[in-house]
Amino acid sequence: MKPQKPHPDFPLFPAPNGQWAKKIKGGGDAKSKPYYFGSWKEDPKGDRAIRSYDARLAGILAGTDHFRHLAATATTTVGDLVTRYLAQRWLDAKAGTLAKVTYGHYNRELRAFAAWVKEATPVAALKPEHFGGYAAQLIEKRKILARSRKRITADIKACFRWGAGNGHCPLPNFGTSFKSPSTTKESIRKEKARAGLADYSDRIVTGEEIDKLLKLSQPNMKAIILLGINCGLGPADIGRLRWRNIDLATGKLNYPRHKTGNDRIGYLWKRTREALNNLLKPKHGHPLKWTKAEFDQHGQDALVFVTKKRRPYYREVEIVKDGRVAGVKIENAVSITFGRSAKKARLKGVTFYRLRHTFKTLGKKAKDRDALNLCMGHKANSVEAGYDHEVISFKRVRRVAIKVKSRLWPKPKGQESANGTMAIAGVDHAEKGEAA
Description:
Layout: E1 13-14, E2 19-24, E3 33-39, H1 47-62, H2 78-95, H3 100-117, H4 128-140, H5 146-165, H6 185-195, H7 207-215, H8 219-231, H9 235-240, E4 246-247, E5 252-254, E6 265-267, H10 270-278, H11 292-298, E7 314-321, E8 324-332, H12 333-344, H13 353-363, H14 369-376, H15 394-408, H16 432-435
Antiparallel strand pairs: 1-2, 2-3, 4-5, 5-6, 7-8
């Protein structure tokens, strides 16, 4: 049962979600919105809630409530700390310095940890047994493998170190059981073997398998598959790609990585450029139904791939509960559609990201690590890299892309092509000049 107000002038009301609340217009908001000040089940007289309200009111009115003031209690609880940490990470996400999908992972895993140890537990009361027990929970109950456990462990430790560094709580003793597991190839193989799972960590895609996938695909997905294997783009990269990143005349892709901001340059094969050009033809039913003239005039800032409802293929949807962002849901039509095609073609262990792995593996055959890193959007993490100011030519990038193609679809030397000309091994006659 909802409690009654302790006295007529009590400023808060018991909300249906189980918390004391008040609607306040603050921070430049056009309309008032509800703010919550703790559970009325645990605090039926509203003593803690009114202290929290008094401490936060100035911040709410000023629009700085994301820097939450702790309630006037002797200790910081795990729930308090997680809420404060996530508020700061959400600011980073809104500023563009943190990916929303990363924030969603923080939110999901930190809330899960707080629920397991109980949100009302003081941080100072946490012992190595709590962290060791949660490590066992990840393995035994949730069946989470080493790579994911390593990330979860790092995220939880980062939250507590942030709290200690900002004076919100003491740094707990994590103990020896709550440590990052080994993620070497050998360790991953051993873990999967013990769990009875198939290991596809070294799986790359062949040219024959690419051809199978292309035959099963519509024009949009054909272009997507070719971009994945031709330039090593991931599904999120595909969903964010805009026409201004592509020069169909020269075949140059200039597309900095959204994840890291690193430069990324690619060369589009002739067949990839043809697949992209086909999207602009009305007969293939491009969702925007542009004519070539309309595209030349207006299309450069538009997304290359959109759904029939003109939505991006890759979307990060905020999940809002009780007036706050409770998580981020990823909607990725690229991975879903590709997965269906791979299943239909009976290709085991082939996800869209395997195309990126294949590009990196085969691209090493060009023996130009710096050019390959530029194609992948990777950056060397070494002291020597700070002294290297070399400008990598587009010719070297082309050589890497064409080497990948020649490895996927090799041709015997001297084999005569369909138009009667001699073909370089694995290289279209139209690309012969670039392979020199």
